[in-house]
User: Fold these one by one.
Assistant:
Number 1:
Amino acid sequence: MPRHHPHRLVFIIVALAVLFLIGVGLYWYLNPKPGPLTLSHASFSDLKGWAESDPRPALAAFQRSCQELMAKPESESMGTYGGTLADWRPACAAAGKAAPDKARTFFATWFAPVAVTAGRVEQGRFTGYYEPEIKGSRTRQGAFQVPVYGKPDDLIQVDLGAFRPNLAGERIAGRLDGMKLVPYASRAEIAAVGLRHAATLFYTDDKVELFFLHIQGSGRVTFPDGATARVAYAAQNGQPYTAVGKTLIARGVPKDGMSLQVIRAWLKAHPADADAVMNADASYVFFSEEPVGDPTLGAKGAEGVPLTPKASLAVDTRLHGLGTPFFVAGPAPLGRLLIAQDIGGAIRGVIRGDVYFGYGEPAEGQAGTMNQMGRFYALLPKPVVERLARAGTLR
C-alpha cells in the first residue's frame, strides 16, 4: 500500500499557495486598479504630439471660457487642484489679446503641464459626442407623436456641494412629496404616462433619434417649413445613467465593435424590444429651445459657453475645474489640446473624457466610433503649479 507523507503534502500546499499569491500580485502589478487622483511634474516635451498639434481651436475655446471665468468671484475653486479663479485671471487677461497664430506660445507662456494619473494608472478612456439633428412639428399630427419636454416646473435640482464641501460636483434631482424630496419619474414612467408638469416644446417623429438626443445632451431640430433651432440641455431627472451598449451586450450583442451606429441599427431592427432597451436607462433629459446662433459652434455646455468642435471636453467636475485646458496624448483624433467645458452622465473618474466633435454626419461618424485610451495632462497657471510643488502635492 502507498504510504502518505503529510509533511510533503503540507509543503506542496504551501508552495501552491505562495505561487498563487505571487501570480495574483504580478497580475495586479501589471493591471493596477485606478487609484486616487495623482499629480506629477511634466514639461511640454513630455506631451507626445504637442509640437505637431494645432492649439488654435483650443485658444478660441479658452477665450470663451474666460468670459465666464472672469465674471465669477476670485475665490471660486477651479477643481480639486487648480487653485482659485484669482490664479487664472492673469492668463485670461492675456488670452483676450492672444492672436491665433501665437496660440502655442500663449499656452507655453502662461501655463505649465501637470500629468494627471489615477494612482499608478496612467491612461484612461476617451469617447466622443456630437450634436444630432431631429425633425419636429409644433403640433401633434401624422408621424409626429413623440413629445420633447422642457424642464418640469416641479423638478428640484440640488447641488450637494453647497451643503458639504466634500460633495462638490455632486448633484441630485427630484420632486417634493409633501415636505420630502423623492426621486423624479424614470424614463419608463415618463414614456408611459407623460409629464403634466412640463411644457411640450414640440413633437418629433422618431423615438430612437430622440433617445440619442438625450444621450448627446443637445442638438438641433428642423421643422416642416425649414426653420431650425437648437435643442439645448436644460435639466435631467436625477435618475442614474445606464449605457445602452451595456444593455445590448447583456442581451447577447457582441461587445467588440460596439458603437453608436451599431446601437442605432439594433434599435431600428428590433422595434418590439427597442422600448425595453431604451427604458433600461432611467435617466431622462429635459431641453430648452434656442436660436441656432453661430452654426459652427455647438450648444452651450455645462460651463455656459458654446462648445467648440474638437476643442471642447466633458470631464468629471468632482475632480476637474471647468475652463481647465487639458492635453490628451494618444492616437488621432487625440493628441490635441482641449478645454474642459462640459459634463456627462457617464463621464466619471480621474482620467475620463468625452470629446465634442460638432454637428452633422461627419461628426456623428467620428463621435460614434470614438473609444480610445489616452494620457491626461492639465495645463495650470504657473503660480498654481509652483504652489502645488511647495506643498508636496506633485510627485
Number 2:
Amino acid sequence: MDLKNKKILLVIGGGISAYKSLDLIRLLQRKSCSIKVILTKTGKKFVTSLSISSLSKNRVFEDTFGEKNNGKMDHISLSRWADVIVALPSTANFMSKLSRGSADDLATTVILASDKETFLVPAMNVRMWEHKATQRNLNKLYSYGYKFIGPIDGEMACGEYGKGKMSSPRQIVSYLEKYFKQKDYLKKKNIKATVTTGPTREYIDPVRYISNESSGKQGYEIALELSRLGIKTTLISGPTNINYSKEIKVKKVISGKQMLSEVKKNLPTDIAVCTAAVSDFTPLLKNKQKLKKKLNLSEIKLEKNPDILEFLGKNNRFKPKLLVGFSAETENLLKNSIEKMREKYCDIIIANDVSIKEIGFNSEFNEVIVIDRNGETQKIKKNSKKFVASIIAKKIVNSFLDIKKRLN
C-alpha cells in the first residue's frame, strides 16, 4: 500500500468544495494514513471541527497560538511532522495569498515554514480560473515549487461548466499514491544521479580567466528536483553565487579538468545530467604571476578542455543508464542540438537558445526544447528555472524507468 503510514497534513480552505475533504479523510484513513488537519477561518463556514476530528482521529488545528499547543509552535511542528501538505480547496484568494508570500494565519504560515512538498487543489469558477491575475499567480506558485492536483473540467456549484472544478477525493488519493510509489521506488533502489552545473574558470594568470555567463541556476534546480523525487543526487558545480540546499550533496570545482575529475570520482552513476557550461578552451600554461601590459603579448596559447558529455557518452565502461546533455545554441537550435545528441550518444538533449537575454544564461527564466532519442520533442515555454526543472526532472525519471523496464 503506497500510502500506508504516510503522514498527510490537510489544509481545508473556504470554498463550497470543502465538504469533499470529509470524503478525502475517509479514503486516506482506509489507506492507513496518519492525518492532521488545519481548518481555516473561512473553511469553518463549510465544515465543522467536530466532523473533521471524528474522522481524522486527531485534534483540528485552527489558531497559530492556540490554547492546546502546550508551548509548541504549531506552524513549525506541523510542517516538520508531515510527509506532504495538501491544501483544498485552493481558492483564487488562497492562491493569491500564497503567491504574495502571505503568512497571516496558521495555514499560510505552516506552508511557508514547510520543507515538504505542498500540493494545491484548485477549485473556483471557470472565469476566475482563466482570469489573468489567477494565471499569473499560478505561474508564480509553480516557480516557488508548489505542485497542483487539477483543476478539472466539470459543472460548477454556480451552474456553469468549464475548467475550475476541484479534483475528486479519489483522484487526489490516486495522485498521491503515484507520487509516493515513484518516490519510494527510487529511494528503495538507491538510484544515483550526477548533475554538473555552472561555468568553469580557466585561469590565464592569478587574476584573469576565461569563463562565461552561466549562473548554474538551471542545473541546481534540476538536481534539487531529482533529489525531492527520491533520487540520491550529487551536484558538481563550477563557481556560482547559489546558496545550495542541504538536500543535495554538492562538490565545488573551478576548472573544466577539475569538473571531469570530480565526475570520474562519482562514477558509476545511474543518471548523468550535464548542464554545466564548461569552457571549450583552457590556457596551455597558467602564468604564476600577473601578466603585465608592457609585455605586448600577441597571443595566449590555448588547448581544448575535456568534453565531459562526450566522455560519459562514449565510455562504455562508465556510461550512465540515462545520459542527458544541454545544448546552448545561438542559431539552428534544433538542428545543432540533434546533431550534438547523436555525436555525444545522449538519451536526451535539452536545447536552449542562449542568444535571448531574457532566458538561459544568468537569468531567472528559461525556455527549452526537450528532445529524446525517439525524436519526440517537448517545448517548455518561458517560465522560472524551477518550473522548467520540474518538467525536465519528470521527463528524466520517466525515461529512466522506461529504460529499466526494457532492461528487465
